[in-house]
User: Which sequence fits this backbone?
């Protein structure tokens, strides 16, 4: 269907009784009020608007977007069905993208540009979604108490030497669940249970978010923790004297666990060509605009990361397809529950 026939986003949402409509419709648009537009359901809030604005400037295509959590927006897509005004579903985690694909909410998009820009491990084998930004789940440490040669793997944090000094994120965090799902994928359920039980035997502090973990380690309240790399870069940008080091685990084994922020074209999309153009731009010309402000790694290996990430050093990534994390997520949640990891 041509873009001129695209359903107005507010009007479509206003007619939906299944899910609550945000006050004032909740829709924001990139600059300008004329010309073609695509509608994006986006769980990504940090700096995304600047990328949307640049895309509009370079292509003349406006981006109208509705923000919410991955799960909320996926559920909205499901409830709206064929009447959804969304052209693109953009998430901050691979699991919800994979689930949306399983629910037939996304359609295959075959693009040479996307295939060349996005590594196979960071995109759907059936072309229904593509990673656009990469996050590494790293071990952080108190530089006053720990040296890198004391660290090796995620599993090694179950060593009694770390008892009372371990900081972890809550079990409800998709980052925690995805890391444990990767342990299941590589070591089986029994192996993952052994690791998590070992962590719990070390009486970890379970904290609400990665920033709190970093600040606790910096203050000496924990000696080690697990966070996404970019939270450390953010804190260092605010405080150059931050006493927290970054270690990339499992370099002699499976490689450091990574996750993505990514997107797919919805099954209901009115303008598939322009929605595809948007994904292609984000993965190529717009990569730096999309990832740099949040200190994420470009998925496009031809794009240089920001200097703060270069200074963290190179590392070997886990090559497990991130879509596999969804397949093992329920097992991961059960393991965490059984271990008393809250």
Assistant:
């Amino acid at each position: 269907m041509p873009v001129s026939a695209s359903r107005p986003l507010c009007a479509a949402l206003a007619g939906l009784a299944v899910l609550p409509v945000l006050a004032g419709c909740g829709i924001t648009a990139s600059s300008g009020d004329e010309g073609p537009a695509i509608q994006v359901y986006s769980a990504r809030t940090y700096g995304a608007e600047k990328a949307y604005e640049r895309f509009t400037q370079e292509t003349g295509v406006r981006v109208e977007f509705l923000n919410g959590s991955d799960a909320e927006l996926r559920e909205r897509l499901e409830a709206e069905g064929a009447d959804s005004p969304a052209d693109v579903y953009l998430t901050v985690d691979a699991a919800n993208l994979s689930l949306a694909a399983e629910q037939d909410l996304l359609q295959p998009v075959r693009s040479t540009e996307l295939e060349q820009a996005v590594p196979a491990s960071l995109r759907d084998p059936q072309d229904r979604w593509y990673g656009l930004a990469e996050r590494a789940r790293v071990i952080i440490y108190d530089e006053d108490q720990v040296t890198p040669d004391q660290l090796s793997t995620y599993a090694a944090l179950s060593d009694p030497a770390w008892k009372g000094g371990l900081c972890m994120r809550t079990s409800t965090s998709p980052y925690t669940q995805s890391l444990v799902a990767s342990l299941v994928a590589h070591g089986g359920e029994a192996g993952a249970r052994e690791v998590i039980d070992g962590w719990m035997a070390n009486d970890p502090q379970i904290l609400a978010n990665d920033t709190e973990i970093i600040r606790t380690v910096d203050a000496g309240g924990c000696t080690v923790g697990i966070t996404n790399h970019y939270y450390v870069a953010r804190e260092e940008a605010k405080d150059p004297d931050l006493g927290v080091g970054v270690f990339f685990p499992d370099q002699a084994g499976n490689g450091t666990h990574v996750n993505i922020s990514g997107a797919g074209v919805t099954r209901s999309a009115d303008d598939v060509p322009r929605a595809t153009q948007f994904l292609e731009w984000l993965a190529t010309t717009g990569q730096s605009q999309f990832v740099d402000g949040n200190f994420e790694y470009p998925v496009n290996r031809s794009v240089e990361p920001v200097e703060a990430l270069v200074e963290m050093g190179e590392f070997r990534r886990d090559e497990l397809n991130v879509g596999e994390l969804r397949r093992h997520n329920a097992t991961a949640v059960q393991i965490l529950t059984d271990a008393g990891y809250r």
The first strand starts at residue 27 and ends at 29.
